[in-house]
Design goal:
Blueprint: H1 7-10, E1 20-24, H2 29-40, E2 44-49, H3 52-63, E3 69-73, H4 79-93, E4 98-101, H5 116-144, E5 147-152, H6 165-185, E6 190-197, H7 218-229, E7 239-242
Parallel strand pairs: 1-2, 1-4, 2-3, 4-5, 5-6, 6-7
Helix pairs in contact: 2-7, 4-5, 5-6
Length: 248
């Protein structure tokens, strides 16, 4: 009987040793799974989130792997928070080699029934936050002519569905931003990729009756990110679409 290779077998050794990876929304769910995977591959990890208790727990978990870890409370939709997180993390760990823009919120319902505050909250976190954190990281990457930015989008950035209007708008916008960033930055050796998972079994999963055991898991997204940031330097994978083997 054939068995799938483990992550440790696919990424032998510590290919990210000496590198610094920043993960927004890294205190739980997909973000924590990504941070854990990158730490296992040898990277020092900087994470941010909005809740101190969750960050402290995540930082302790990540530190148990032997990784250097920095954690800060930050709301990436605010310029001062985004810039402060990057500045503090780089002071603690060194210049960022990898940025994973993962922070996001999912709210669903008929678009015309959303308030302006709801619209602002979703777009500011899912789209503006990527712009703000990337803007803070990119100048150092340009100076060093290296870096990898991974934006966590969604299949909702390529498809439409009832009740997804505002969320889809944020993710379709992220698709456009990511593609343009890739073109702007490739001349500096900076690779920009976007990962588009379907529904992932986290507390932010979209509504509806689904079989959680058949849904994507946070580790599936983390595996894709690991693949992207260990890609040979002469090329980059611009987009990854992830679907479950069986429909939930």
């Amino acid at each position: 009987m054939m068995h799938s290779p483990s992550v440790s077998q696919l990424f032998a050794g510590a290919p990210l040793s000496g590198q610094v990876a920043l993960v927004t929304g890294g205190s739980r769910g997909i973000g924590l799974a990504i941070a854990r995977q990158l730490a296992q591959l040898g990277a020092a990890i900087g994470i941010c989130g909005r809740r101190r208790a969750a960050l402290d727990t995540a930082a302790k978990t990540l530190g148990e792997s032997g990784a250097r870890v920095f954690a800060a409370v930050a709301d990436v939709s605010r310029a001062a928070d985004a810039e402060g997180f990057v500045s503090q993390a780089e002071s603690a760990l060194g210049p960022a080699d990898i940025l994973v823009n993962n922070a996001g919120i999912g709210r669903f319902g008929t678009a015309h029934e959303f308030s302006e505050a709801d619209w602002d909250s979703i777009l500011d976190t899912n789209l503006k936050g990527v712009f703000l954190v990337s803007r803070a990281v990119v100048p150092s990457m340009i100076r060093r002519r290296t870096g990898h930015i991974v934006n966590i989008s969604s299949l909702a950035g390529k498809n439409t569905f009832a009740g997804g209007g505002v969320y889809c708008a944020s993710k379709w916008g992220l698709q456009g931003l990511s593609g343009c960033m890739a073109e702007d930055l490739r001349q500096y050796g900076i690779r920009v990729s976007v990962v588009c998972p379907g529904s992932v079994a986290t507390e932010f999963s979209s509504p509806g009756a689904k079989n959680v055991s058949k849904m994507l898991q946070p580790e599936d997204v983390a595996h894709a990110v690991a693949m992207l940031v260990t890609q040979a330097p002469q090329s980059f994978i611009s987009e990854v679409l992830i679907r479950p083997t069986q429909k939930p």
